[in-house]
Amino acid sequence: MSRARRTALAVVVVTLVLAALAIRVGPGDVSWADVVGAIGRGLVGQQRLADVDDAQVWALRVPRVMLVILVGAALAGGGAVTQGLFRNPLADPSVLGISLGAAFVAVLGLLLGLDRAGIWVTPVLAAIGAAATLAILLALATRSSDATTLLLAGVALGATCGAATTCVLALAGDRHDLGIRVVRWLMGSFEGRSWGHLLGASIPIGLGLLLSGTLVRDLDALALGDDVAASLGASPARVQRRAVTAVALLVGGATAVAGVLGFLGLVVPHVVRWRLGGGHRALVPISALGGAAVLLAVDTVTRLGATALPPGVITSLLGAPAFLWILLAQARRREE
Amino acid sequence: MTAVLRVRECGLAVPAAGSGTRWLIRGLSIDLTPGARVAIIGPSGAGKTTLLRALAGLVPPGEGSITLDERPVIDWDPRARARRIGWLPQRAEPWADVTAAELVALGRTPHLGALARHDQTDHAATRAALAQVDAGGLAMRRWSTLSGGERQRVMLARMLASDARILLLDEPTNALDVGHAMRVMQCCDRLARSGNTVVFATHDIQLARRWSDRVICIGAGSGVGPTDEMIVPERMAELFDVQAHWGQAMVFDSTPEGD
User: Fold this and answer.
1) How far apart are the first and last CA of chain A?
2) Which end of chain B is more exposed for a tag (fewer CB within 10 A), N or C?
3) Is residue A235 within 8 Å of B79, Cβ to Cβ?
4) pLDDT at B187 over 80
5) Which of residues 129-168 of B touch A (CB under 8 A)?
6) Does domain A3-335 have CATH number 2.30.30.100?
């Protein structure tokens, strides 16, 4: 078995163990037997909704855990595609401005009180924001096929949307409830996410992961620059459009259901590339699996505390020092 | 022998200051056949790289035509074209610290499916390409640990791994010492002898004179012809705006035990 396959298998096993633990732990003393029973009954559509344990496990924890896996995979897989597209290990999927575009429209909805119409409103508005950002990026990409231009355009779009979000908050300065709701959403959370969220997110994220899978050969070809990619039969402009669409589906879907989660998309692909090399055939899927495992671990830890910390805070709080340590370790190895 | 890459009355232009265009090359005609060894020489900025890019089908000619098997090279399906034409750019660096084998395997891109699965043929071609440039021992070395000469050989292997028979090389000996430069050119020579078409741009007139049969001069006094007729003091003087005359030069050759 190749090193990539062994790693993939190990990460899948870790994710499954974490998923089992994540479903077990939390308020209420749910035994393993209850967990298995509830999931079994849920799968055949015979869940006992009156049973508190069944409701806890099947209606809350199972969809939450699956959503965490999906979002972690989306962000880290999107990170691997972004880094390959821009040929830059420091690129994060947020550089395209997708998540901030999504956040702006979602916050606008919160300001207007649209979210009172149902729990689906904010995710849908965020998805609209992500789609609008993608449309602008694609329009720019058809004018210029230069990756640096696209990168700077994404950064500029993100900065504009971020400033606009702050502006909305400042204008609604006297409405403290709004401020709290917005900050809570921006921090990212999996609290109270249901099967509906999971189904809604699985469509864009599933499409994004499939599209990413078909991009691996062409992302490899970009390794030596646009001209070499073109001479190898991969049109850089086409690769760029497809990669931006994939990242928008992944990040847009993830942001819509979980808010803005930092650092995962930067660190996970970076570590995988360090251990397994730069080939995207292994890098993209293993980054996605790794992102799922890391986010699941983070989310489970945050649920253990008395006050549930937002997972986005933890990913950045732990991710940033971990990233620094990795960079130093790499520098040390290069000097040896 | 049949012409493979056929250039007819070709002109290449770049946008000039203000409006309009500046012609780098006009009226160039040449047939690039299997076994050909063709050097492109001319002063910096004259258009050597632009010509190679046009031959590779990366940019269309401003006038005239460049055809591969009777079809304009720019109109070819990019992947089918990549299986026929290999291109070695002047400068290219991988952005991640990949191994030599991974880099050479990129040459297989035009043969791979979208999921980039490498089969036995691809692995064999990668190994063979590394062996062809005497870099078999470098396979597992990372890019950051390779010297300039080793990097150039790995890049050459990357081009060869595609099995393309038309090879376009942009200053393949740039930044190499006389020994490494000679070994790269000997490799090109072997490739031409085994039926490949080798076209290379160079600043080194001695190198062009030794390793080519025909020369394309670009710039003042441009033209195409046999090496012996083209690389003569009168033409070189005009081309590079210098005085030129025959003299003695040191000649380098490989050591008896081969490469």
Assistant:
1) 30
2) N
3) no
4) yes
5) 144, 158, 162
6) no
Q: Which residue of A lies nearest to B93 if distances are taken between CA atoms?
A: A224
Question: What would the two tokens of residue B230 be?
Answer: 């083209």
**What is the number of other CB atoms lying within 10 angstroms of the CB of residue A198?**
20
Q: Where are the domains of chain B?
A: 5-240
**B232 interface with A at CB cutoff 8 Å:** no
Q: Quick one: tokens of B184?
A: 């790269």
Predicted complex ipTM:
0.87
CA dist B143 and B147 (Å) reads 9
Longest dimension (CA), chain A: 64
Are residues B58 and A230, on separate chains, in Cβ contact within 8 Å? yes
Give the start-to-end residue ranges of the domains of chain A.
Answer: 3-335
Q: B73 and chain A: CB distance < 8 Å anywhere?
A: no
| Number of residues that make up chain A | 336
Min Cα distance B162 → chain A (Å) is 9
> Coil, strand, or helix at residue A140?
helix
Q: pLDDT band for position B1 (50/70/90)?
A: very low
B234: exposed, middle or buried (C-beta count within 10 Å: 0-12, 13-18, 19+)?
A: exposed
Q: Do B113 and A217 touch (CB under 8 A)?
A: yes
Q: Give the 3-state secondary structure of residue A95.
A: helix
For the purposes of burial, counting CB atoms within 10 Å of the CB of A148, is it exposed (0-12), middle (13-18) or buried (19 or more)? exposed
Q: Please write the tens of the pLDDT for every residue from A274-333.
A: 888 888 999 999 999 999 999 999 888 888 776 777 887 888 888 888 888 888 887 787
Least confident of A131-145, A224-238, B211-225: A131-145
CATH class of B5-240: alpha beta
Q: Which of A12, A24, A4, A8 is nearest to A293 (CA)?
A: A12
DSSP result, A8-34 = HHHHHHHHHHHHHHHHH-SSS---HHH
Residue type, B43: P
Q: Do B115 and A216 touch (CB under 8 A)?
A: yes
Q: Chain B, 27-56: which have a CB under 8 Å from a chain A CB? A: 53, 56
How many angstroms separate the CA of residue B196 from the nearest CA in chain A? Answer: 18
Q: Which of B82, B113, B114 sits opposite A232 (nearest CB)?
A: B82
Q: Which two tokens stand for residue A145?
A: 């096929």
Q: What is the pLDDT of residues B51-66, one digit of tens each?
A: 999 999 999 998 999 9
Task: Give the mean pLDDT of A39-63.
Answer: 77
Question: Which residues of A fall within a CB distance of 8 Å from B106?
Answer: 220-221, 223-224, 228, 232
Look at B86 and A231 and tell me if their CB atoms are within 8 Å: yes
B89 vs A217, A228, A281: nearest CB: A228
